[in-house]
Automatic annotation (TrEMBL):
A GO biological-process term: transmembrane transport
Entry protein name: C4-dicarboxylate TRAP transporter substrate-binding protein
UniProt keyword terms in alphabetical order: Signal
Signal peptide from the UniProt entry: 1-26
InterPro entries to which the protein is assigned, alphabetical: DctP_fam (IPR018389)
Amino acid sequence: MKTTSILRGTALAAVTLSIGAGAALADDFTLRIGAGHPNGPAVYVADVADFFVPEVVRRVEEETDHTITFVEGYGGSIAGVAETLESVENGILDIGAYCACFEPAKLFLHNFPYYAPFGPQDSDQQITAARAVYDQVPWLEEQFTSEYGQVLLGLHGWDNYHLGTTDPWETVDDLQGVKIGGAGPNLPWLEFAGATPVQSTLPDGYLSLQTGVYNGWLMFPSAYLGFRFYEPAPYYTLIGFGAMGVNVLTMNERSLNNLPEDVQTIIREVGAAYEAQAGASLNARQASGLTGLEEAGATISEISAEVRSGWAESLASFPSQQAAEADGRGMPGTEVMQAYLNAVGETGYEWPYEYTVE
Protein backbone atom coordinates (compact mmCIF):
# COMPACT_ATOMS: atom_id res chain seq x y z
CA MET A 1 0.00 0.00 0.00
CA LYS A 2 1.38 3.42 -0.95
CA THR A 3 2.02 5.95 1.77
CA THR A 4 1.50 9.66 1.35
CA SER A 5 3.21 12.44 3.26
CA ILE A 6 2.28 16.08 3.56
CA LEU A 7 5.44 18.12 3.85
CA ARG A 8 4.88 21.40 5.59
CA GLY A 9 7.84 23.32 4.24
CA THR A 10 8.65 26.96 4.59
CA ALA A 11 11.27 27.38 1.90
CA LEU A 12 11.57 26.53 -1.75
CA ALA A 13 14.99 25.03 -1.03
CA ALA A 14 13.17 22.06 0.40
CA VAL A 15 11.64 21.34 -3.00
CA THR A 16 13.63 19.26 -5.45
CA LEU A 17 10.89 18.20 -7.81
CA SER A 18 8.80 20.53 -9.94
CA ILE A 19 5.47 19.35 -11.25
CA GLY A 20 7.18 18.58 -14.54
CA ALA A 21 9.76 16.38 -12.83
CA GLY A 22 7.03 14.74 -10.79
CA ALA A 23 5.15 13.91 -13.98
CA ALA A 24 8.22 12.09 -15.27
CA LEU A 25 8.00 9.73 -12.28
CA ALA A 26 4.37 9.03 -13.27
CA ASP A 27 3.47 8.02 -9.75
CA ASP A 28 4.11 10.59 -7.02
CA PHE A 29 3.60 14.30 -7.73
CA THR A 30 4.96 17.20 -5.69
CA LEU A 31 2.89 20.38 -5.60
CA ARG A 32 3.83 23.67 -3.95
CA ILE A 33 0.90 25.44 -2.30
CA GLY A 34 0.92 28.68 -0.36
CA ALA A 35 -0.64 31.95 0.78
CA GLY A 36 0.57 35.29 2.08
CA HIS A 37 -1.50 35.09 5.24
CA PRO A 38 -0.73 32.54 7.98
CA ASN A 39 -2.61 29.34 8.64
CA GLY A 40 -4.90 29.83 11.62
CA PRO A 41 -5.96 33.49 11.89
CA ALA A 42 -6.91 33.64 8.19
CA VAL A 43 -9.86 31.28 7.65
CA TYR A 44 -9.33 30.85 3.92
CA VAL A 45 -5.76 29.68 4.57
CA ALA A 46 -6.81 27.39 7.43
CA ASP A 47 -9.30 25.77 5.06
CA VAL A 48 -6.53 25.25 2.49
CA ALA A 49 -4.31 23.54 5.07
CA ASP A 50 -6.98 21.64 6.98
CA PHE A 51 -9.44 20.79 4.21
CA PHE A 52 -8.12 21.17 0.66
CA VAL A 53 -4.64 19.66 1.13
CA PRO A 54 -5.60 16.55 3.14
CA GLU A 55 -8.69 15.91 1.01
CA VAL A 56 -6.69 15.97 -2.24
CA VAL A 57 -4.05 13.71 -0.69
CA ARG A 58 -6.68 11.25 0.55
CA ARG A 59 -8.69 11.08 -2.65
CA VAL A 60 -5.70 10.79 -4.97
CA GLU A 61 -4.33 7.90 -2.91
CA GLU A 62 -7.69 6.15 -2.58
CA GLU A 63 -9.07 6.72 -6.08
CA THR A 64 -6.03 6.65 -8.39
CA ASP A 65 -2.72 4.85 -8.91
CA HIS A 66 -0.86 8.00 -7.89
CA THR A 67 0.07 9.95 -4.77
CA ILE A 68 0.40 13.65 -4.05
CA THR A 69 2.99 15.33 -1.82
CA PHE A 70 2.30 18.95 -0.88
CA VAL A 71 4.97 21.43 0.14
CA GLU A 72 3.04 24.08 2.07
CA GLY A 73 4.24 27.66 2.50
CA TYR A 74 1.88 29.98 4.35
CA GLY A 75 2.37 33.31 6.08
CA GLY A 76 4.45 34.71 3.24
CA SER A 77 7.15 32.04 3.49
CA ILE A 78 6.99 31.58 -0.28
CA ALA A 79 4.90 34.54 -1.47
CA GLY A 80 3.45 37.56 0.28
CA VAL A 81 -0.18 38.67 0.14
CA ALA A 82 0.49 40.89 -2.89
CA GLU A 83 2.73 38.33 -4.61
CA THR A 84 0.67 35.15 -4.67
CA LEU A 85 -1.13 35.70 -7.97
CA GLU A 86 2.21 36.37 -9.68
CA SER A 87 3.85 33.39 -7.94
CA VAL A 88 1.18 31.07 -9.31
CA GLU A 89 1.52 32.70 -12.73
CA ASN A 90 5.27 32.12 -12.95
CA GLY A 91 5.22 28.68 -11.32
CA ILE A 92 6.92 29.48 -8.02
CA LEU A 93 3.69 28.14 -6.56
CA ASP A 94 1.60 25.46 -8.24
CA ILE A 95 -1.45 26.46 -6.19
CA GLY A 96 -2.07 29.74 -4.38
CA ALA A 97 -4.77 31.21 -2.15
CA TYR A 98 -5.11 34.98 -2.06
CA CYS A 99 -7.42 37.96 -1.79
CA ALA A 100 -8.25 40.00 -4.88
CA CYS A 101 -8.05 43.03 -2.62
CA PHE A 102 -4.24 42.93 -2.84
CA GLU A 103 -4.37 43.03 -6.65
CA PRO A 104 -6.33 46.27 -7.11
CA ALA A 105 -5.13 46.73 -10.70
CA LYS A 106 -4.97 43.20 -12.08
CA LEU A 107 -8.09 41.93 -10.30
CA PHE A 108 -9.98 45.22 -10.00
CA LEU A 109 -13.36 43.81 -10.94
CA HIS A 110 -13.01 40.67 -8.80
CA ASN A 111 -13.38 42.98 -5.80
CA PHE A 112 -17.02 43.66 -6.72
CA PRO A 113 -18.46 42.74 -3.27
CA TYR A 114 -16.40 45.56 -1.74
CA TYR A 115 -18.07 48.00 -4.14
CA ALA A 116 -21.50 47.40 -2.56
CA PRO A 117 -20.90 47.40 1.21
CA PHE A 118 -23.47 46.58 3.88
CA GLY A 119 -24.37 43.46 1.89
CA PRO A 120 -24.95 39.94 3.28
CA GLN A 121 -23.86 39.58 6.87
CA ASP A 122 -23.96 35.80 6.49
CA SER A 123 -20.98 34.31 4.66
CA ASP A 124 -23.07 31.51 3.14
CA GLN A 125 -25.25 34.11 1.45
CA GLN A 126 -22.18 36.06 0.34
CA ILE A 127 -20.38 33.09 -1.22
CA THR A 128 -23.63 32.02 -2.92
CA ALA A 129 -24.06 35.50 -4.41
CA ALA A 130 -20.42 35.74 -5.51
CA ARG A 131 -20.58 32.33 -7.19
CA ALA A 132 -23.77 33.35 -9.03
CA VAL A 133 -21.91 36.33 -10.49
CA TYR A 134 -18.96 34.20 -11.61
CA ASP A 135 -21.38 31.79 -13.26
CA GLN A 136 -23.33 34.57 -14.98
CA VAL A 137 -20.25 36.50 -16.17
CA PRO A 138 -17.65 33.97 -17.44
CA TRP A 139 -15.16 36.79 -18.06
CA LEU A 140 -14.27 36.76 -14.36
CA GLU A 141 -13.06 33.17 -14.35
CA GLU A 142 -11.60 33.34 -17.83
CA GLN A 143 -9.38 36.29 -16.89
CA PHE A 144 -7.34 34.09 -14.54
CA THR A 145 -6.41 31.82 -17.45
CA SER A 146 -6.19 34.23 -20.37
CA GLU A 147 -4.12 36.88 -18.57
CA TYR A 148 -2.41 35.08 -15.69
CA GLY A 149 -2.02 31.46 -16.79
CA GLN A 150 -3.98 29.91 -13.95
CA VAL A 151 -7.22 28.10 -13.29
CA LEU A 152 -9.78 29.09 -10.66
CA LEU A 153 -10.39 26.15 -8.32
CA GLY A 154 -12.70 27.78 -5.80
CA LEU A 155 -13.90 30.94 -4.07
CA HIS A 156 -13.57 31.85 -0.41
CA GLY A 157 -13.85 35.09 1.54
CA TRP A 158 -13.82 37.13 4.72
CA ASP A 159 -16.43 37.08 7.44
CA ASN A 160 -18.46 40.18 8.28
CA TYR A 161 -16.41 43.39 8.55
CA HIS A 162 -16.59 45.65 11.59
CA LEU A 163 -14.33 48.35 13.06
CA GLY A 164 -11.76 48.08 15.83
CA THR A 165 -10.14 51.18 17.36
CA THR A 166 -7.52 52.10 19.93
CA ASP A 167 -9.87 54.63 21.54
CA PRO A 168 -13.60 54.58 22.31
CA TRP A 169 -16.07 56.52 20.16
CA GLU A 170 -19.78 57.19 20.48
CA THR A 171 -20.88 58.98 17.30
CA VAL A 172 -19.64 58.84 13.73
CA ASP A 173 -18.41 62.41 14.19
CA ASP A 174 -15.87 61.06 16.68
CA LEU A 175 -14.11 59.26 13.79
CA GLN A 176 -13.41 62.52 11.94
CA GLY A 177 -9.71 62.54 11.04
CA VAL A 178 -8.96 59.24 12.78
CA LYS A 179 -6.46 57.14 10.80
CA ILE A 180 -7.93 53.72 9.99
CA GLY A 181 -6.23 50.88 8.16
CA GLY A 182 -7.77 48.63 5.54
CA ALA A 183 -7.03 46.37 2.60
CA GLY A 184 -7.65 48.96 -0.12
CA PRO A 185 -11.01 48.38 -1.82
CA ASN A 186 -12.77 48.92 1.51
CA LEU A 187 -11.12 52.24 2.36
CA PRO A 188 -13.82 54.32 0.57
CA TRP A 189 -16.26 53.05 3.21
CA LEU A 190 -14.63 55.50 5.61
CA GLU A 191 -15.58 58.64 3.67
CA PHE A 192 -18.95 58.88 5.42
CA ALA A 193 -17.23 59.07 8.81
CA GLY A 194 -14.56 61.50 7.64
CA ALA A 195 -11.84 59.13 8.82
CA THR A 196 -8.40 59.09 7.20
CA PRO A 197 -7.90 55.83 5.25
CA VAL A 198 -4.53 54.05 5.37
CA GLN A 199 -3.62 51.20 3.01
CA SER A 200 -2.24 48.25 5.00
CA THR A 201 -2.15 44.45 5.34
CA LEU A 202 -2.97 42.07 8.18
CA PRO A 203 0.65 41.13 8.96
CA ASP A 204 1.43 44.83 9.56
CA GLY A 205 -1.64 45.57 11.65
CA TYR A 206 -0.55 44.83 15.23
CA LEU A 207 2.62 46.91 15.21
CA SER A 208 0.96 49.74 13.28
CA LEU A 209 -1.87 49.96 15.82
CA GLN A 210 0.60 49.72 18.67
CA THR A 211 2.82 52.51 17.35
CA GLY A 212 0.09 54.85 16.12
CA VAL A 213 0.63 54.49 12.38
CA TYR A 214 -3.16 54.29 12.48
CA ASN A 215 -5.72 54.04 15.27
CA GLY A 216 -8.27 51.67 13.83
CA TRP A 217 -8.75 48.69 11.53
CA LEU A 218 -11.60 47.64 9.25
CA MET A 219 -11.56 43.99 10.20
CA PHE A 220 -13.69 40.89 10.72
CA PRO A 221 -13.75 39.15 14.14
CA SER A 222 -11.87 35.99 13.14
CA ALA A 223 -8.74 37.93 12.18
CA TYR A 224 -9.14 40.67 14.80
CA LEU A 225 -8.96 37.92 17.42
CA GLY A 226 -6.42 35.73 15.63
CA PHE A 227 -3.96 38.57 15.08
CA ARG A 228 -4.58 39.86 18.63
CA PHE A 229 -5.47 43.34 17.43
CA TYR A 230 -7.66 43.68 20.52
CA GLU A 231 -4.51 44.23 22.58
CA PRO A 232 -3.48 47.60 21.06
CA ALA A 233 -7.03 48.42 19.91
CA PRO A 234 -9.56 47.00 22.41
CA TYR A 235 -12.68 48.84 21.19
CA TYR A 236 -14.60 46.76 18.63
CA THR A 237 -17.74 48.23 17.10
CA LEU A 238 -20.20 46.07 15.15
CA ILE A 239 -21.04 47.95 11.97
CA GLY A 240 -21.88 45.17 9.53
CA PHE A 241 -20.11 46.22 6.36
CA GLY A 242 -20.75 42.65 5.26
CA ALA A 243 -18.99 39.40 4.44
CA MET A 244 -16.87 39.53 1.28
CA GLY A 245 -16.42 36.70 -1.25
CA VAL A 246 -13.17 38.07 -2.65
CA ASN A 247 -10.64 35.30 -1.98
CA VAL A 248 -9.67 32.71 -4.57
CA LEU A 249 -7.80 29.44 -4.82
CA THR A 250 -6.06 29.09 -8.19
CA MET A 251 -3.65 26.67 -9.85
CA ASN A 252 -0.99 27.22 -12.47
CA GLU A 253 -2.52 26.00 -15.73
CA ARG A 254 0.64 24.18 -16.85
CA SER A 255 0.96 22.44 -13.51
CA LEU A 256 -2.63 21.25 -13.70
CA ASN A 257 -2.33 20.05 -17.30
CA ASN A 258 0.83 18.06 -16.47
CA LEU A 259 -1.13 15.86 -14.08
CA PRO A 260 -3.05 12.72 -15.10
CA GLU A 261 -6.69 13.42 -15.90
CA ASP A 262 -8.01 11.57 -12.87
CA VAL A 263 -5.81 13.65 -10.56
CA GLN A 264 -6.88 16.85 -12.34
CA THR A 265 -10.51 15.90 -11.79
CA ILE A 266 -9.97 15.33 -8.08
CA ILE A 267 -8.20 18.69 -7.64
CA ARG A 268 -11.03 20.51 -9.40
CA GLU A 269 -13.67 18.68 -7.36
CA VAL A 270 -11.93 19.35 -4.06
CA GLY A 271 -11.55 23.00 -5.08
CA ALA A 272 -15.32 23.16 -5.57
CA ALA A 273 -15.80 21.48 -2.17
CA TYR A 274 -13.42 24.00 -0.59
CA GLU A 275 -15.73 26.74 -1.87
CA ALA A 276 -18.89 24.89 -0.79
CA GLN A 277 -17.74 24.71 2.84
CA ALA A 278 -16.36 28.27 2.94
CA GLY A 279 -19.55 30.00 4.10
CA ALA A 280 -20.14 27.71 7.06
CA SER A 281 -16.47 27.88 8.00
CA LEU A 282 -16.47 31.68 7.94
CA ASN A 283 -19.73 31.92 9.89
CA ALA A 284 -18.35 29.64 12.59
CA ARG A 285 -15.20 31.73 12.91
CA GLN A 286 -17.25 34.96 13.01
CA ALA A 287 -19.16 33.60 16.00
CA SER A 288 -16.12 32.21 17.79
CA GLY A 289 -14.21 35.40 17.01
CA LEU A 290 -16.80 37.59 18.72
CA THR A 291 -16.93 35.25 21.70
CA GLY A 292 -13.14 35.18 21.87
CA LEU A 293 -12.89 38.97 21.73
CA GLU A 294 -15.34 39.31 24.58
CA GLU A 295 -13.47 36.71 26.64
CA ALA A 296 -10.18 38.50 25.89
CA GLY A 297 -11.55 41.71 27.39
CA ALA A 298 -12.36 43.69 24.26
CA THR A 299 -15.12 46.27 24.57
CA ILE A 300 -17.81 45.38 22.03
CA SER A 301 -20.56 47.79 21.00
CA GLU A 302 -22.91 48.19 18.01
CA ILE A 303 -24.09 51.12 15.91
CA SER A 304 -27.80 51.77 15.53
CA ALA A 305 -29.82 50.68 12.50
CA GLU A 306 -30.35 54.36 11.64
CA VAL A 307 -26.64 55.13 11.56
CA ARG A 308 -25.98 51.98 9.56
CA SER A 309 -28.59 52.83 6.90
CA GLY A 310 -27.28 56.40 6.73
CA TRP A 311 -23.75 55.11 6.26
CA ALA A 312 -24.92 52.80 3.48
CA GLU A 313 -26.84 55.61 1.77
CA SER A 314 -23.75 57.82 1.83
CA LEU A 315 -22.13 55.27 -0.48
CA ALA A 316 -25.06 55.21 -2.93
CA SER A 317 -22.91 56.23 -5.90
CA PHE A 318 -20.06 53.83 -5.10
CA PRO A 319 -21.35 50.76 -7.05
CA SER A 320 -21.98 52.82 -10.20
CA GLN A 321 -18.68 54.63 -9.82
CA GLN A 322 -16.71 51.38 -9.62
CA ALA A 323 -18.73 49.80 -12.42
CA ALA A 324 -17.94 52.76 -14.68
CA GLU A 325 -14.27 52.57 -13.72
CA ALA A 326 -14.18 48.90 -14.70
CA ASP A 327 -16.04 49.60 -17.95
CA GLY A 328 -13.41 52.19 -18.76
CA ARG A 329 -10.72 49.56 -18.30
CA GLY A 330 -12.37 47.27 -20.82
CA MET A 331 -13.95 45.08 -18.16
CA PRO A 332 -17.67 44.17 -17.86
CA GLY A 333 -18.11 46.37 -14.81
CA THR A 334 -21.76 47.34 -15.14
CA GLU A 335 -22.73 43.77 -15.98
CA VAL A 336 -20.90 42.38 -12.95
CA MET A 337 -22.21 44.93 -10.45
CA GLN A 338 -25.80 44.53 -11.65
CA ALA A 339 -25.44 40.76 -11.51
CA TYR A 340 -24.13 41.03 -7.94
CA LEU A 341 -26.96 43.25 -6.72
CA ASN A 342 -29.45 40.83 -8.31
CA ALA A 343 -27.70 37.80 -6.82
CA VAL A 344 -27.73 39.28 -3.33
CA GLY A 345 -31.44 40.00 -3.70
CA GLU A 346 -32.06 36.40 -4.66
CA THR A 347 -30.50 35.20 -1.40
CA GLY A 348 -33.29 36.97 0.48
CA TYR A 349 -30.99 39.52 2.09
CA GLU A 350 -32.49 43.00 2.62
CA TRP A 351 -30.07 45.89 2.12
CA PRO A 352 -30.15 48.77 4.63
CA TYR A 353 -30.08 50.91 1.49
CA GLU A 354 -31.02 49.65 -1.98
CA TYR A 355 -28.11 50.32 -4.33
CA THR A 356 -28.62 50.73 -8.05
CA VAL A 357 -26.22 50.74 -10.98
CA GLU A 358 -26.74 53.32 -13.70
